[in-house]
Amino acid sequence: MRVAVLFTAITIIALQAMPCDAASKKTTQAKPIPTQKMRDTRASEFHAPSPTFRGWDYLVERLRHNGVNDHDLRAIYSSPRMPYFTFVPFSLRPREPASMYSGFAKPKYRHLGAEFITRRKRDFDTVEAALKVPREVVAAILVVESQIGKHTGTEIIVYRLSRLASANAPENLRHNYKLQKAKDRSVTFEQVKKRGRYLEQTFLPEVPALISIAKRNGINPLDMRGSSAGAFGMPQFLPSAFIRYGMDGNKDGLISLHNEEDAMWSTANYLANFGFRRDIPLQEKRSIIWRYNRSKSYIDTIISLSEGIREEAQVKSQIGAYDSGARLQQASRK
């Protein structure tokens, strides 16, 4: 889904409630850098670059080819609010360091999750009964992704998604190949192209999805804020995941991933769609969380944090029951 990048929230994104899924990369010889003739041939498939789109010409043509109309394209990529396209560097073998999530071992995050499921006990009772997803796992994801809404992002989502979707632009591939080759002489242009294609295939569909969400809410896509990876809300969904799995938890006719109930239901719905339940083997649970974020360190963090949240919430519940009983006894003696 996305890397857990934490920023400050600005915009609440709400979507008209709609039906959702009920459960809801060897060559040994390096190839030469493409010649100008090669680049010109490939670029001939698209319109000539124009300042009209602030350098986003490659992406604009790809989006046009995928059905996005010219009015929407001009409204975004000709707007002075849209930053100019610049080089998009990428790694051939990206990997998140374990240290990225080590901070979540601190007690304060376990406390935060336990307080959340205690405060929202009635809502979680309903969510868990309907979708069979353990509340502590939902809480752990919301804690890691946004600290339960505290940090949801200040980046222009359409800009961040557009950069990732432009990774496969010919000139961008050439520049990445040059940089990668300088670091590792064994790198081939095919490897760079493969990674560029993957990024385009992954993020290109997210731009039309975001436009669709904005239209349904009557807002400008340039007003929508999220992380540097283009995700938003408490669970940090990408736009396509929002459309597939977003749920109107509080039944107000809107879906907002900045609303606690909607975020709870939507996160649980995502996990339930892939079969996550309390009674499945640990390896199956890890495989489903992998779909949410393809990082072993992330998975380890969610599993460990969810266990800590569950244990602490149980203690809170026992203390609460004891205090309640003590108060009743005192009242009966009066």
Shape by Cα distribution: globular
Q: Walk across the major sheet and give the strand order.
A: 1-4
**Average pLDDT number:** 86
Q: List low-confidence stretches.
A: 2-48
* Beta strand count: 4
Query: Which radius of gyration do the C-alpha atoms yield?
Result: 23 Å
Helix segment count? Answer: 14
Number of structural domains: 2
> Largest sheet at a glance?
2 strands, antiparallel
Structure classification: mainly alpha
- Helix fraction, binned, reads 40-55%
The CA-CA distance between the termini, in Å, is 58 Å
| CATH architecture identity of the largest domain | Orthogonal Bundle
> What would the CATH topology of the largest domain be?
Lysozyme
Overall CATH class of the largest domain: Mainly Alpha
Task: List SSEs in N-to-C order.
Answer: EHHHHHHEHHHHEHEHHH
Strand content: under 5%
List the SSEs and their pairings.
Elements: E1 14-16, H1 36-43, H2 57-65, H3 70-77, H4 107-119, H5 121-131, H6 135-146, E2 155-156, H7 157-165, H8 170-183, H9 189-203, H10 206-217, E3 225-226, H11 239-245, E4 254-256, H12 260-273, H13 282-292, H14 296-333
Antiparallel strand pairs: 1-4, 2-3
